[in-house]
Amino acid sequence: MRVFVASTDLRPMALQLLQSRTPAAYAGVEKYAQSHAGQDVASLAWFVLGYAHLLDQQGAAAIPYLQKARPQAGELADYVDLYLARAHSEAGDSKSAISTLYGFEEKYSTSILRRDAALEEAAALLASQQPARALELLKTHRTPPRADMELAIGRASVELQDTAAAIDAFRRVYFTMPISAEASAAESELHALARNQPLVPAGRELRQERARALLDAHHAAEAVPEYRSLLADAPREEQPAATLGLANALWLSGHAHEASDLLRKMPDPGGELAAQRLYYLVELSRSDPRTAGDYLSQLRASAPQSPWLAEALLTAANIYLLRDDDGTASRFYAELAGRFPSGPHGPYANWKAGWLQFRMGDVENAKQAFERQIALFPTSAEASSALYWRGRMAEEEKQPGRARAYYLATAQNYGNDYYSELSRRRLHDIGIGPVAPADRDPLLEQLQRKQLSLHFSVDPSPDSVRYQKSLLLENCGMIDLAARELQAANASWSAPQIARLFNDAGEYNRALRTLKQAAPGYFTASLDNLPREIWEGLFPRPYWEALNRYASENGLDPFLVASLIRQESEFNAAAISRANAIGLMQLLPSVGRKMAREAKVPRYNTAMLLEPSTNVELGTRYLRQLLEKYNGTVEYALAAYNAGADRVDSWRNHHYRDIQEFVEDIPFTETRDYVQAVLRNQQMYQQLYPAP
User: Are 564 and 679 in a shared domain?
Assistant: First the structure.
């Protein structure tokens, strides 16, 4: 472990070099290597210098450094060999590249770089006119599919004049991996082959796969010409499906009028295609509820069991919800839940129907819906809300014992969920005490606390070679490579170590995302279900000095600000949204300018929103103003922060029992979830850290 400890001195210099690659940074690392001559840590420094030159596309300059690193490379010998071979190739010395990688597979049988090395060696073999050897090597690494591997196989096949194999490989990339970095190169290779001889057109299945893959990747505009082409030469029996595919792509790419026109003119295809067509027409008629209702009626009559009817009912319900027509919306939600209880929207539709009935004063139907939610969908996202509001109904009916039973069930079964905290507050108000037998709802006996299936270990195995390699790579400033080694370890300590790695490198958003993905149900856990280090990783405090300072200056709870930042940007200071909201607190440029004028920020420009301190200074000022506008009501301020004050002012015109009912009734799912998440985050911060 001596080299791990010693090389920590190298880490800040290595990070600076790999990020900036200035002459001074190069000189600093070289001086470090020279001053540690003969030691293992010198080898790491030489490796960093060679790797940095490769990042600058200076292969020839990288070679001497990587050669110096090679004799004492130790656990990182596979990395040094791979990058030395790459440097030789960039310098035009294919023979040395091949020699460096000879026997890589046998020498480093457990290396995660084996496929990368095979690609590098194959490229060198191709450059030295040995395509047969290159192809043989590539084929042993063809599974699982990888775009760069297929592209290389295609190029080797071209050299061997095996046009059919080349076309197959290039088409695999272009048609089945259309958003890969290699897709455009594969297209160019296909065009080059077509200049020499006419190519048999790609089959419809391949073309359909490309169109679908583009749509699935949210590249609808690129999918439109693919579907146009499919429709243009579709046989008669495939024209309806091609028309629907094109209409969907047009709709998703912002050409709703053309999509609607296309669908209205197409003949009735019958069966599920007809149901799909009617669903699209319902969606495209959102601005005209009467027309949408006509299409829905046709769909209900012609395909009463179709999943497209379920989608159309959800759309219709949402149309009327956003138009403040709770009665009509509730009827559509109830129909959806009744017709398709086991479908993907069944739990949500049942809950939403019950909630709207509750809002309209239809107590009995609301009560039945809430109890149905508990009985049929106890693990649904809406189950805790149904329990909480069923408790509120019991309170209103002067049944404190039964209300206590529902609140206890919520608090005990849903960990740190938003409604668990609300339930704990209600229990505090009505008093925690025993639940009498008469107040026990049999439904509650069926509830079982959800437990995380994942188990974390904060302490890594010191004997793990992958862990040891990750430490060395981390000290070389190679954060992504270190993370790959930890991922490959696939151990209980992998995710916590990856999060620590990213946090130490200042990539807080990546650390947070790593833990969220590793423990997706963490909000159902109690604090004692996960190690404290995991909780602190899930609720970190980066930029705390600036955050605490500006929160205090604006009279804000710093944990509220941290919670908002966690929800807005996951502590990514460089975040820029599709709406051009910028930085930690995701401020729009117009808001930033206004706040900067008021705060008299000298020489302000929009780029300053990427500076954490400036962003927090202006963001906390904006949040304070929203709180002042709403007399300190945090829920209104958060809703306005997300959806705009005009919308919140409109929503407030409705009558609500209290602020919790206002939050529940927010018609925008994104905004409702946002408000609840920030408040839930704040509670978690306050539990984890006794004082700011």
Answer: yes
Does some domain include residue 445?
A: no
Domain assignment present for 237: yes
- What residues pair up with 587 in beta bridges, in sequence order? 582
Tokens read off for 467: 């862990």
- Are residues 415 and 525 in contact, defined by beta-carbon separation less than 8 angstroms? yes
Q: Which of 153, 130, 158, 157 is nearest to 143 (CA)?
A: 153
One domain for residues 313 and 327: yes
Exposure string for 277-290, b = 16+ CB within 10 A, e = fewer: bbbbbbbbbeeebe
Q: Which residues partner with 576 through β-bridges?
A: 582
Give the tens place of pLDDT for each residue, 193-239. 999 889 999 999 999 999 999 999 999 999 999 999 999 999 999 99
Total Cβ atoms within 10 A of residue 297: 11
Category of 324 on φ-ψ map: left (φ > 0), alpha (ψ -120 to 50) or beta: left
Residue closest to 594 by CA, chosen among 622, 623, 630: 622
Chain mean position to CA 187? 29
Q: State which residues form the domain around 276.
A: 218-400
**482 and 373 in a common domain:** no
Q: Are residues 371 and 501 in the same domain?
A: no
**Are 30 and 178 contained in the same domain?**
yes
Give the position of tokens 């620590």.
500
Look-up: residue for tokens 């490229």? 123
* Final residue in a domain of this structure, among 354, 372, 400: 400
pLDDT at 1: 46
Just list the catalytic residues. 568
pLDDT at 91: 97
At 406, list the tokens.
């529902």
| Half-sphere exposure for 599 (CA within 13 Å, toward CB) | 24
CB 498 within 8 A of CB 473: no
HSE of 78 in the Cβ direction (CA atoms, 13 Å)? 24
Q: Do residues 467 and 486 lie in contact, with contact meaning Cβ atoms separated by under 8 Å?
A: yes
pLDDT value at position 637? 98
DSSP helix/strand/coil, 582: strand
The pLDDT assigned to 435 comes to 79
Nearest residue to 484 via CA among 466, 507, 509, 504 = 466
| In a domain? residue 408 | no
Assign 587 to helix, strand or coil: strand
Whether the ω angle into residue 201 lies within 30 degrees of 0, i.e. cis, is no
Could you tell me which of 61, 56, 65 has the C-alpha nearest to residue 30?
65
Give φ, ψ of 582 to 5 degrees.
Answer: -125, 140
State whether 629 and 564 are in the same domain.
yes
Confidence band, pLDDT 50/70/90 cuts, at residue 512: very high
Among 410-424, 430-444, 593-607, 651-665, which stretch is predicted with the lowest mean pLDDT? 430-444
Q: Examine the pLDDT at 45 and tell me if it is beyond 90.
A: yes
pLDDT, tens digit, for every residue of 449-467?
655 555 778 888 888 999 9
Residue that terminates a domain, selected from 350, 383, 400: 400
CA distance from start to end of the chain = 37
CB neighbours of 541 closer than 8 A, spacing ≥ 6?
Answer: 547, 562, 689
Long-range CB contact pairs, 567-572, < 8 A, 24+: 567/674, 567/677, 567/678, 567/681, 569/509, 570/508, 570/509, 570/512, 570/513, 571/508, 571/509, 571/512, 571/540, 571/542, 571/543, 572/508, 572/509
Tell me whether residue 232 is exposed, middle or buried, using C-beta atoms within 10 angstroms of its C-beta: 0 to 12, 13 to 18, 19 or more.
exposed
Residue 226 burial (CB count, 10 A): 24
Q: Across residues 72-78, what is the average pLDDT?
A: 95
Same domain, 227 and 190: no
| pTM across the whole model | 0.92
Answer whether residue 146 is part of any domain.
yes
Region 482-492: mean pLDDT is 95
Closest listed residue to residue 666, CA positions, set 642, 631, 633: 642
If asked whether residues 245 and 122 sit together in one domain, one would say: no
